[in-house]
Design a protein that fits this description.
- It holds the Pfam family Phenol_MetA_deg.
- This is Transporter.
- It comes from Ramlibacter alkalitolerans.
- The chain has a single domain, classed as Beta Barrel (Porin).
- The N terminus is likely disordered.
- The radius of gyration is 20 Å and the shape is globular.
- The protein is mainly beta and 320 residues long.
- The protein contains 3 helices and 14 strands.
């Protein structure tokens, strides 16, 4: 990949968090994206000017019902339907470009592969209901501005942009039953995105970053608006050799309750903290692969929601 002063800085950069950043949305049905900020591993921000195409695959199997901080059994707390599991397989496609002026932009689109299973209470019995779909999600367009700080070993910047309602909101199953709104590949809303970040190179082999980002729906669509979401990322990277880099992050996500007549406010909204170790490997000067294994340190949810015991993200980034 393009060489950036300091080996560790090559292993850290930031961009798609501006567009796909960690939206670990723990809805009652369990739809989710991994909250790890992979762009510090993929060099997507471009502390130097240029373009980066980043392809990221992630797997999150949410099969653990939870209330508050306590794990519970399926159906332990009576509901209209008992959530059992949601398997999320997401492909995130992001293109980011930075300019020498400090300005840059990112365009990103998720492709969602989701399988959901719950038990519906009907006439005193339990009816199994399933959804299995592959759909395009909501497009994100973000800009950023960054400048060196102090002696030039640090960079600070701001993020701004929108999430557009390109994903479908009425996906149904083979029986014609429309999935819950929080399970759908799109929210139907236009969301504002704003944030800030800081990166500092500590030595030739180590650096760290911090980022905060807020996403807020600007409208409702068919009686639904997702809750506002705040993500906080803190990470460190260190070169382990000529081609390898070790990566470690703490990722915090605070999500408010969904709103609207079609929402489930009593079973939405959460507070989560994750530990995300990872590795990156340089395939050449312009290409890198990376992987993260994310573990929850603490999860607290409103009502009853599905959570995952782990998340896995792997990616390939190439600079133009």
């Amino acid at each position: 990949m393009h060489q950036i002063p300091g080996a560790a800085a090559r292993a850290l950069a930031l961009a798609a968090a501006t567009l796909l950043a960690a939206s670990a949305a723990h809805a009652s049905c369990g739809s989710a994206f991994c909250s790890v900020n992979t762009d510090w591993a993929s060099d997507a921000l471009g502390l130097a000017e240029g373009g980066v195409l980043d392809l990221r695959y992630e797997y999150i199997n949410q099969d653990r019902p939870r209330t508050g901080t306590r794990r519970i059994a399926v159906g332990e707390i009576p509901h209209h339907h008992d959530e059992v599991s949601t398997a999320n397989r997401n492909l995130l496609v992001n293109y980011s470009r930075g300019f020498a002026s400090g300005w840059g932009y990112s365009v990103g689109l998720p492709i969602v592969d989701r399988k959901h299973f719950h038990l519906h209470h009907h006439d005193g019995g339990l009816v199994p209901e399933r959804w299995d779909f592959r759909e395009i999600g909501d497009l994100r367009l973000t800009g950023r501005y960054q400048q060196p700080v102090g002696t030039g070993t640090s960079n600070a910047g701001v993020i701004f942009g929108v999430k557009l309602p390109t994903g479908r909101t009425h996906v149904d199953n083979a029986a014609g039953d429309v999935a819950e709104r929080s399970l759908q590949p799109g929210t139907g809303t236009t969301d504002a995105i704003a944030g800030a970040f800081f990166h500092q190179q500590l030595s030739d082999t180590g650096s760290w970053f911090a980022q905060a980002q807020l996403q807020q729906a600007l409208n409702k669509h068919d009686g639904f608006a997702p809750g506002a979401q705040l993500t906080l990322d803190l990470g460190y990277a260190r070169r382990l050799g000529e081609k390898f880099a070790g990566l470690l992050q703490l990722n915090a996500v605070v999500k408010r309750r969904d709103r609207g007549a079609e929402a489930e406010p009593e079973d939405s909204g959460s507070r989560s903290l994750f530990l995300s170790p990872g590795l990156s490997y340089d395939l050449g000067e312009r290409m890198r692969v990376y992987a993260f294994y994310q573990l929850p340190l603490r999860q607290s949810v409103n009502g009853v929601q599905l959570t995952a015991r782990r998340a896995i993200a792997v990616g390939l980034a190439t600079r133009f």
